[in-house]
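TICKET: design request
STATUS: open
ATTACHED STRUCTURE:
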């Protein structure tokens, strides 16, 4: 179900014509739909109902406090990768017992805080980190639940920059080394090894990489069972992709669910998921105003007031986010039309079309599917403040994060 649609040529998110919001709020701004967020979370949960997993929303995909509080009400836990994200998850009311902490470079301060808060799992990514956890746990006189993030050396068949599960990626520990660590677990008096975790990449649309991961983990689990390690959890990470255009297929969650159900039964463990994009990707759009149309040889640029600092995915990954006008008209310009931002980089470009409707100064457009890794990857480049975040709930909307004051950057 998609809550973004045209009605009588006007673009609506839920029951609000987005043009109505532009009369009150300065562009660019991020606009989220609460119904879409709830739908996505509940849909994910329903798809895996027979597995009854702990769903830990991946806070890096969108760290807006209000959105995370709403997910908490639906039963979500959190996957965090920094003390900042951990504090946001706790502030949103998520129980520490539903929080997992991943990342290759957790500092002593971060580990100490997580250990004091007694979170569900620290997913360790190196032997050095495991030694550090043991030391800090000892200082705190606490036994800490640890998962080991496995690097299964499996290709996620996704963009290279968001692929994490090959042996030359910095993430995780090989199965051989993990086996050694389990064999020597008595070295780590203050650690209870309760889980293994895996996350091979993001925006994965093909089921096969997940199949391979499940097979590899099942084989590994059999091996460690033989040395007396019986895991409580297997954390399968996130990574399930979403369609970014009409021609993209949906990822088949049901098919994945059937595989995971079989996996859970054979391995007799609890399952954890860490979805980000599939929960919040299509819950957000970025609303922007045309500053100038600009004719150039063989093409037309539409310079809008949103830029790569608001949404870096096109520049960073070549991602294509569709752009819609807030008000459709019938005058089609049959010319290559490229949407660009005002930032002084040629990579500050969003998307090109062979033809597009005529747009003038002051017209508004909507950049789709920016709920995940939109605002959370934003920057202040070119001394541009962070844009406001607005939440729609049926026929009401409210600002859930104010636009950053420009003055706060001029100091
Ligand atoms: N768990 C771990 C350990 C992760 O590293 C990630 C994402 C997730 C879960 C959530 O993955 P998701 O379900 O959202 O695919 N900035 C990139 C994506 C980077 C993903 C990093 N890790 C982008 O905009 O495409």
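STATUS: resolved
RESOLUTION: sequence designed for all positions
ATTACHED SEQUENCE:
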């Amino acid at each position: 179900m998609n809550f973004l649609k045209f009605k009588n040529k006007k673009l609506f998110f839920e029951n609000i014509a987005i043009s109505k919001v532009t009369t009150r709020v300065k562009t660019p701004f991020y606009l989220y739909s609460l119904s879409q967020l709830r739908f996505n979370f509940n849909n994910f949960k329903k798809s895996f109902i027979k597995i009854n997993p702990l769903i830990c929303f991946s806070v890096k995909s969108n760290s807006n406090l209000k959105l995370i509080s709403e997910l908490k009400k639906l039963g979500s836990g959190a996957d965090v990768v920094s003390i900042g994200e951990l504090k946001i998850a706790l502030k949103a009311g998520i129980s520490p017992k539903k929080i997992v902490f991943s990342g290759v470079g957790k500092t002593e301060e971060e580990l100490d805080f997580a250990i004091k808060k007694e979170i569900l799992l620290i997913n360790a990514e190196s032997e050095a980190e495991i030694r550090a956890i043991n030391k800090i746990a000892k200082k705190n006189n606490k036994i800490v639940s640890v998962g080991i993030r496995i690097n299964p050396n499996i290709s996620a068949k996704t963009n290279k920059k968001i692929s994490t599960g090959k042996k030359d990626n910095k993430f995780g520990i090989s199965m051989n080394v993990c086996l050694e660590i389990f064999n020597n677990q008595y070295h780590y008096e203050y650690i209870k090894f309760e889980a293994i975790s895996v996350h091979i990449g993001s925006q994965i649309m093909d089921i096969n990489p997940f199949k391979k991961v499940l097979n590899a983990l099942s084989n590994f689990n059999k091996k460690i069972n033989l040395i007396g390690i019986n895991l409580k959890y297997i954390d399968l990470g996130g990574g399930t992709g979403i369609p970014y255009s009409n021609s993209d297929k949906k990822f088949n969650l049901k098919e994945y669910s059937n595989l995971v159900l079989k996996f859970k039964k054979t391995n007799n463990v609890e399952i954890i998921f860490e979805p980000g994009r599939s929960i919040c990707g299509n819950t957000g759009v970025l609303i922007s105003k045309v500053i100038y149309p600009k004719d150039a040889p063989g093409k037309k640029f539409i310079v809008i007031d949103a830029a790569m600092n608001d949404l870096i995915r096109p520049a960073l990954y070549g991602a294509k986010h569709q752009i819609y006008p807030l008000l459709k008209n019938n005058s089609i310009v049959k010319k290559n039309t490229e949407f660009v931002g005002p930032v002084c980089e040629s990579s500050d470009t969003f998307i090109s079309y062979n033809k597009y409707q005529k747009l003038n100064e002051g017209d508004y457009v909507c950049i789709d599917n920016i709920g995940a890794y939109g605002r959370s990857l934003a920057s202040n480049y070119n001394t541009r403040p962070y844009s406001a975040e607005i939440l729609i709930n049926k026929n009401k909307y409210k600002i859930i994060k104010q636009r950053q004051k420009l003055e706060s950057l001029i100091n």
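CLOSING REMARK: The pocket of LLP is lined by residues 58, 60-61, 79, 102, 162, 199, 202-203, 237-239, 274-278, 313, 317, 372-373, 377 (CB under 6 Å). The first strand starts at residue 4 and ends at 7.
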